[in-house]
Every structure is written in structure tokens, then in C-alpha cells.
Amino acid sequence: MVDVKKIKSIDLAPFTIMSSSIHAILAFIAAILMLILFGIVAALIPGLGVISAFITWAGVALVIIYPISSFFISIASAFFSVWLYNMLEPRVGGIQLRLEGNEVQEIPIVPFALILSCIGAVWAFIIGLFLAAVIAPFTALISSSIPIIAGLIANSTNATNITNMTALPTGAAVSAGGVVLSVILIIGMPIAVFILGFISAALAAIFYNFLATRVAKVQLEFAAVTETVHELKSIPVVPAALSLSVVFAVFGFIQGLGQLFSNGGILGLIGNTIGMFIEGLIVVALVAIFYNFLAPRIGGVKLDLE
Question: Cys-Cys with 216: which of 65, 76, 239, 273 at CB 3.0–4.6 Å?
Fold first, then answer.
């Protein structure tokens, strides 16, 4: 029997700790691989002792810095994203899952895409506001400096010999450009992120519902904490990796179609599809493995399901 569950809210602390821990482990693995790559590069140029030593020690530093920075950045981003989800859910609706036992049979498309695109739009608004605040002093400085620069040029050069003074933008033009750029960052970018995020999330749900479930279905092992709150105890690795890697592969196929008539050709299309499938298989499998390892030790993600 199919049971429709809506995620009313997500417990902030367990999700944040789990997400940041998994990100740190993945970052550590990536740093180790980069260290190996740096070591190979250093070994191939033994004559450049100083550069080889620098490359080697940069790789060692990366192994320390990358996981730690990834952990703390993920804490901030995961906490705020989940907080946004909990704030937006009563207004736009939450993610729904059609469950049969522990199998995710279907993800209703519109609720899934709507709330994820709203979260992305809020993030885009904050980033755009920050960038606009950073750019504004520079545009003000440039616009106020242009008359001074123009005066210095006029004083140091015979005015009758100046032929390109009209090419110099005016302070008003720079100020107007800064205003337009700020409007694009604060208003245009969130709108664009919302539209693209909605389309991407909707396509991901469609690909899962109509394609991935024919290969395998994601399984979620829940344990009831209260009447409505459930803890995600484990994620069976193989079904999750197989089903979601199909979604990755379809996105890779679509991306490859864009390169089909350029320099990629049919080989680029096939390579992109297979590459995305393998990437999805590895990433999802690692995330599931690390989740299952960490959940009994630091606690699983807790969801309020209705």
C-alpha cells in the first residue's frame, strides 16, 4: 500500500551535524586524491626541487585545510538551508514522498521543485545583496575618480591633440552601470535561480519517477521517535546508488546533447552520459555508506512526517 508522507520539518541539529560530517569525509578523500596527484606531478619534475617541494607540501596542507573548511562551511550552509525549509514549508508546502514500505515509489514533482527552488532563490538573494554591497563602493570610487583622471589627462596633454577623451566613460555612466548591476544581482539573479532551480528539480523528480524506479527504488529505513517524528536510521546503499545514478546519467545525456553539434560529437554524448552515471554511482554510494556508518554514532536525520 502506497502511503504519502509530507516532510513538515527537519530537525536542525542532527541534519547539520550529519551533513557537515559527510562533507568533511568527502573533502578528506578528495584531498588525499589530490595529494597523490600532486606527488605524481612532483615526481615527474625532479629537477625543479623547490617547485616539487612546494607542490608536495601544498598537497599536505590541502589534506588538513580542505576537510576542516568544508566541515565549517557545510555547518553554516546546511543549518541555514534547513531553517529556510522549516520556515517556507507552511507557506509553499514541503517535499512529499510516496512510500510503499521503505521504498520511495514516487516524488510528487511540484512540491519537490517548488520548495527547493524557493530555498535556492533566497540563497541567491543573499549572495546578490552581498555582492552588490561589495561592488557599490568600487563603482562610487570609480565614478568620482573619472573627472579627476580626465582633468589630469587634459592638463598633461595638449587638449587639441586629445582624440580619445570622448571614449572615457563619465562618472554618471559608471554610477548608472553600478545601479543596473546591483538590480541584476539583487532581483534578476534570484528570479533566474528560482526558474532554473524549479526546472532542474522538476526534471530530477520526473527522471526518478519514470526512469530510475524501473532500475531500483531508493529505500529509507525509518524508526519512529514520536507519533510524527521519524529518524532515518539507514539508507541501503545499492538501491540508492543505482536509482540516483540513473538520474545523473539522464542529466549527463542532456548536457551531452548540447555538445553533440559542437566539438564533442557522439563520443562526447556517450562519454558524458557514462561519466555522469559513474559519478552519481560513486557519490551516492559513498554518501549512503558514510551516513550508515555515522548514524548510530552521532544520530540520524530526524524528520517530522505527516
Answer: 239
